[in-house]
């Protein structure tokens, strides 16, 4: 597994990097046979250290965790425990579905745009042009997943929404976290 360990305005020593590689490698190795890479970023927020970790699995799924504590090692250990818990749940769900994915998840590239938010002071005036202002353009990967895998991926990533291609009919679908805590699923397939 490839590791990218960095600090935002914090010097990361060799001892911490070795601790991260050993601990995270052991936690991920218990549940994922083929992790590809891990990114760990340390930062400081007030008096606390913050650790954010993201692990990409060969199946195409991504797990992320965030922890904070007054000591940098404790912040990482908290993050590592959360990652361990997420991967344990992921492994249990895979066993519950009685389905092993022999091949990595297929992805498709799609353009993604960030649009400028309209200001509240502009509401008094009717805009001349209804086209939004594009702030940024980037590429996004859209995975081909089952609905259950999409929900699992959304929860592992801690994301509020996930766009995916439904592997049953190849249509674009969306799963999202509702305000009541449940998960919504949008399937605009034409019958």
Automatic annotation (TrEMBL):
Keywords, sorted A to Z: Cytoplasm, Translation regulation
Segments forming domain Sigma 54 modulation/S30EA ribosomal protein C-terminal: 131-184
Single GO MF descriptor: ribosomal small subunit binding
Origin: domain of life: Bacteria
Recorded GO CC terms: cytosolic small ribosomal subunit
Location in or out of the cell: Cytoplasm
HAMAP family, alphabetized: HPF (MF_00839)
PANTHER family: 30S RIBOSOMAL PROTEIN
Family: Belongs to the HPF/YfiA ribosome-associated protein family. Long HPF subfamily.
Protein's recorded name: Ribosome hibernation promoting factor
Organism: Roseicyclus persicicus
